[in-house]
Description:
heterodimer, A: 494 residues, alpha/beta, Rossmann fold, 2 domains, six-stranded mixed sheet, 18 helices, 33% helix, B: 331 residues, mainly alpha, ABC transporter involved in vitamin B12 uptake, BtuC, two-stranded antiparallel ribbon, two-stranded antiparallel sheet, 3% strand, globular
Amino acid sequence: xxxxxxxxxxxxxxxxxxxxxxxxxxxxxxxxxxxxxxxxxxxxxxxxxxxxxxxxxxxxxxxxxxxxxxxxxxxxxxxxxxxxxxxxxxxxxxxxxxxxxxxxxxxxxxxxxxxxxxxxxxxxxxxxxxxxxxxxxxxxxxxxxxxxxxxxxxxxxxxxxxxxxxxxxxxxxxxxxxxxxxxxxxxxxxxxxxxxxxxxxxxxxxxxxxxxxxxxxxxxxxxxxxxxxxxxxxxxxxxxxxxxxxxxxxxxxxxxxxxxxxxxxxxxxxxxxxxxxxxxxxxxxxxxxxxxxxxxxxxxxxxxxxxxxxxxxxxxxxxxxxxxxxxxxxxxxxxxxxxxxxxxxxxxxxxxxxxxxxxxxxxxxxxxxxxxxxxxxxxxxxxxxxxxxxxxxxxxxxxxxxxxxxxxxxxxxxxxxxxxxxxxxxxxxxxxxxxxxxxxxxxxxxxxxxxxxxxxxxxxxxxxxxxxxxxxxxxxxxxxxxxxxxxxxxxxxx
Amino acid sequence: xxxxxxxxxxxxxxxxxxxxxxxxxxxxxxxxxxxxxxxxxxxxxxxxxxxxxxxxxxxxxxxxxxxxxxxxxxxxxxxxxxxxxxxxxxxxxxxxxxxxxxxxxxxxxxxxxxxxxxxxxxxxxxxxxxxxxxxxxxxxxxxxxxxxxxxxxxxxxxxxxxxxxxxxxxxxxxxxxxxxxxxxxxxxxxxxxxxxxxxxxxxxxxxxxxxxxxxxxxxxxxxxxxxxxxxxxxxxxxxxxxxxxxxxxxxxxxxxxxxxxxxxxxxxxxxxxxxxxxxxxxxxxxxxxxxxxxxxxxxxxxxxxxxxxxxxxxxxxxxxxxxxxxxxxxx
Lengths: 494, 331
């Protein structure tokens, strides 16, 4: 029987209006990789933040090596040997590898200056322990995402971490790097480190974990031994319903071409991208972080300039060099981060809905208030936005409802070409399904949708066609039904 | 269901907060005025009230346009310098040999303010410079130009038209008062209030202040709106400069010194957020009146200017913390 190094018992956490965790228990053995699986909003991050001392728990107990502990702040958790490697890496890009690893604990000479020799030697030892051959003197800004991640792991383990949390560590990695990461994890494992592995990529769960715990809507659905389970079981546990209900894809007749993109090039970023979008069609755009997907849609919507190529709309060349021109061409843009780029959080629901259409809210200088209210009311009902009133500040609404408001704004402008960047990121399952239904309804009404999505089940189920981009080039194009997870990841890592 | 209930409650509170913040300010103003009326007989005289309101009008006009800038998430601290430069320029031209007609001089003054506003707007939108840095620079440039132009002296400008704009009539040695600045103040506040609450332009200002990126993606011409707002603020400052010149009958580079901070105080008192997206003209009106009554009233009952400055600071911190507390309660 392996030694239990961590036990979390009946952990609960309440946020205003949401029960983020409801009596969730989780444990970890010495030298074990225990997967934590669940959809966005299932409670994975909340659980981890409680373990890291970022959030306080409302109920429940935490035991480390059998002893009960209370974490008031992150340093309490770190002192117990717990380290979290977040998806967003926190490296200091202008410093060297060695400095990054030992930051806050740099060896000094007697006169107080940094002892570079010892520092680099120690860094080498830590890197060797992980079987990595990175030069400790290298500047971190010049490294790849994977190498930066290794630095973070090194930073975490040099102080004898025995519990390592990895939050979606492969989200930005290519196939080779994933193999290398898994080797590092296995070597840590053999040294007795327990790893909490968070991911929604099922293949990885099967490759690397010993056990898996599935969370859904803040509740623990179950813990299973990885060897004794299969894909479908895990998916059903995660989603709580069959995939078919989750993705209401309907057969919509594909019509004429709405938009043609020809040889679009941004020097050094995008190379010769060509495709067309037809009415009734959803094109999924897949790729890894930094592949150029964001640059592509920003160029299409006129936010960024491109160096050569052409965009044609309804068969005519279109000069889309600002978002307002894009709007005139009946394009609509749903940004990736609704709080940063989408919503005016301190303004009411109605002004967020009409935000892209202010100039059409009446004839002259003034806004026709009753016209505005009628329109907003209509979208609140049609898109099923749950809000106490049209005058509510969008701040106080849930992520799903906020996302629907962004969508309602595009509908209010009468767009026909929709560019949706991760349209269901971080929202609850119910709102997700609502948004898929709206997407299908838009297609039936003759619109076309370009959707960036990093969620494989979503992109595979909703797209009529999938374009894969890697290093700024189209590296794969699949019709509906031709693609699967393996093919997409393979094309994305070419 | 439970969730909807709490949200519902939250909503009602938000609405109440918005309304009552301004209402509370006006109640506070009323209490203050009534107390001063009891404490000093002179406070409640027509002469005092007219002269107080006329004084308020001078800084109030810029507070109104600064509210637009601040709702948009920007700031303009070149107001005082703008006032000084305008005042010096019109007095300087007035005293030239073969002087221009007075109307032309006033127009030149307003054009100077327009140019200063346009300069701020251009630098902030085209070079993407931080508004505080930009207008800090403009503040130094304009005030410095005032000193250069007048060789650091005050220039007398005794003219009926300018005096009238400043609320003073000079005729046959007698001084008669007509509160023209007050009339300007009322007209400007009415149009600003309507613009911010009912117009498309006002809505765009709120959107930019609440989230500039979202406004851009929604097709709002962010740079154009910003430019216009800084332009308006520049014009208003030069108008204030002309009023002050009329009131004091001199053009001098020390005019409006430090007043940008008082004006910002008034706007913040009125509930406009330094982070943009929130605020309204009515709140600023209350803020301006409270500061005006505070200075006038305390002076009437025998306090000195230096003491009142202390009160001003205390009131600002108190009121703004009150806003913060209520904001937190809402969520």
